[in-house]
Amino acid sequence: MADFDLDSADGRREALRRMVTIRAFDEEAGDRFADGEIPGFVHLYIGEEAVGVGACASLDSDDYIASTHRGHGHCIAKGLDPKYMMAELYGKAEGYCNGKGGSMHIADVDAGMLGANGIVGAGPPLATGAALSIDYQDRDQVAVGFLGDGAVAQGQVHEAINLASTWDLPAIFVVENNHYGEGTPVEKQHNLENLSDTAQAYDIPGVTVDGMDITAVAEAVAEARERARAGDGPTMVEAQTYRYRGHYEGDEEPYRDEDEIERWKDRDPIESFKDRLIERGELTDEEFDELRSDAEATIENAVEYAQETDSPDPTAAYEDVFADRPPELDRFANVARTDGGANGGDHR
Amino acid sequence: MTAQAELELETETMTVREAIRQALREELQRDEDVYLMGEDVGLFGGVLEVTSGLFEEFGEERVRDTPISEAGFMGAATGAAATGTRPVVELMFSDFAGVAMEQIMNQMAKMHYMFGGKAELPVTVRTTEGGGMGAASQHSGTVHTWIAHFPGLKAVAPGTAASAKGLTKAAIRSDDPVFVFENKMIYEQSGEVPTDEDFTVPIGEAAVEREGDDVTVVATQRLVGESLGVADSLEGDVSVEVIDPRSLYPLDTETIVESVEKTGRLVVADESPLSYGTHAEIVARVQEEAFFSLDAPIQRVGTPDTHIPFSPPLEQEVLPDDDDVRAAIERIA
Ligand SMILES: Cc1ncc(C[n+]2csc(CCOP(=O)(O)OP(=O)(O)O)c2C)c(N)n1
């Protein structure tokens, strides 16, 4: 089973730790981005932690996930190390992708993480493919494709669900309905009350759960996983959630007001889970503070590591285009580096 | 392996279609992780009958009919390749790559690189190209330049039955995404094909199909056979060397350059549109490496930047053929 699950006190504490770590990671990433230390685009997961962690709590460590452009939370939920994640955000050689991916593409296939993705809706076909490998080789795993509410409008998402459904593949599609696709509210993108209703078209179960409640997400995914492993095909789980931050860091958010954000914050996934654990007598306020300061220390160390570790050698730009390197890479890479010198060998 | 060495192996006469089918069969037998998928590849046997009989032989797990959803199954093949299996996808007509382009260009082509080399993508995409069947613009395109242009994708295009078999097998064994562009007009063309199960044509190796001294013709796909015919017909007047690059990316620059250094003249014959394409790449490399060996302007034979029209006289008008190759040779010889 998972390296943590919500059926045990240890698992619950680990889930809380992962949620807190995600928040600490993303708060820090936002600050470091604002300071100009992190290049590119950064999309934060703050407010949505219960979805990624809830889903991964019901997965085995060797199950696969395919993520979205908002992928930091999925990475931590899946057990990736914040140190190498942060190094990747900084574009460093020790990052998960050797500095070639950045925030939007963190991946670790060996850990079952098939990548964050810069293309909205591209993850579900990849998850269907991972489920195909699993099914083909009779492996006891499942593959989860995460997608946003906006991505539900993408054609390739429906092709992926249809294929997984037709072939009864062990796939789970988790829609993170955070109510906005960039600045456009979900109601303006879909004529459906519940996005999980789209599952009907594929004759697979579709459920909508409270995405601020980690238990609700975990239960739905656990059920989907059982179904998938029994050979009964995919399930669509829609988790209703909310992102506290702008679409990307720097977003001025003209499309929503503070009240709305505050209303969702009242149901904060971390606070509410923490309160439940305290009520059950599994956690004290002091222990929570400790857990949070540990998470903050972990992220601080990650930032320090990212700042200090080496940038890739520029020649690494020509590596890993292929598994089997073609001669073109030497031919053209050398020219690019020769300061406008004559190309080729015909100097007569 | 050179064309010469290939002929020293034991061979059998078969068509290009049979050669590809044989390659698929052998690779399905050799490696359990290899399976075929695509629209109508199963019971139907493939719209151009390449996979015919394989469904009966290997069953529906290994010869899989997909829904008609190119983006979905191209993406699934990419995800499957990244997670331990070796899918061989048939994309019914290469024009349909447009429907799946997102998964091809942003996922399949970039995953190995973006993940810092930490995902292998042993996916093979077989697809048909070319006009000549009256199939009109959406089923006759020659789009290999697009794919050859994308870093992260390899593109091969056989011109003979032997290379069709060898390249298909090499593509399936490759740990990189490889597109195999089959010209639909030469499926019936037959030739000697090595029967050895270990025979492959290494990706990135051209074949000198015919030796000559006066003009080098670099020809692809259908134009390989037609150029060989022209070379035979000019025997005694012009000595023509015919090279099939076989692999468009990577491209065997050396073999082509060596030939041009010998002949001093070059014709590049490829069915794709002439602007900004495969021809231009070959020409550029030759002028970089062998400019001072050239005795005449390089000639290009291709489709004059149109789509392929339906009506047979129109189609014949735009498709490059042996007459065009002959005219190009005569202009410079
Ligand atoms: C194919 C594609 N179209 C547009 C974009 C630009 N874009 C990036 S994120 C985004 C919104 C996605 O919304 P949703 O799927 O709801 O995810 P969320 O950002 O809410 O997590 C858009 C339009 C993109 N990256 N890819």
UniProtKB/TrEMBL annotation, chain A:
Pfam families: E1_dh (PF00676). Its cofactor is thiamine diphosphate. Keywords: Oxidoreductase, Thiamine pyrophosphate. Residues 17-314 form the Dehydrogenase E1 component domain. GO terms for biological process: pyruvate decarboxylation to acetyl-CoA. CDD domains: TPP_E1_PDC_ADC_BCADC. GO terms for molecular function: pyruvate dehydrogenase (acetyl-transferring) activity. This is Thiamine pyrophosphate-dependent dehydrogenase E1 component subunit alpha. It comes from Natrinema longum.
TrEMBL record, chain B:
The keyword Oxidoreductase applies. It comes from Natrinema longum. Its cofactor is thiamine diphosphate. Signal peptide: none annotated. The keyword Oxidoreductase applies. InterPro entries: THDP-binding, Transketo_C/PFOR_II, Transketolase-like_Pyr-bd, Transketolase_C. Keywords: Oxidoreductase, Thiamine pyrophosphate. One of its GO terms (biological process) is sulfur compound biosynthetic process. This is Alpha-ketoacid dehydrogenase subunit beta. One of its GO terms (molecular function) is oxidoreductase activity. Residues 14-189 form the Transketolase-like pyrimidine-binding domain.
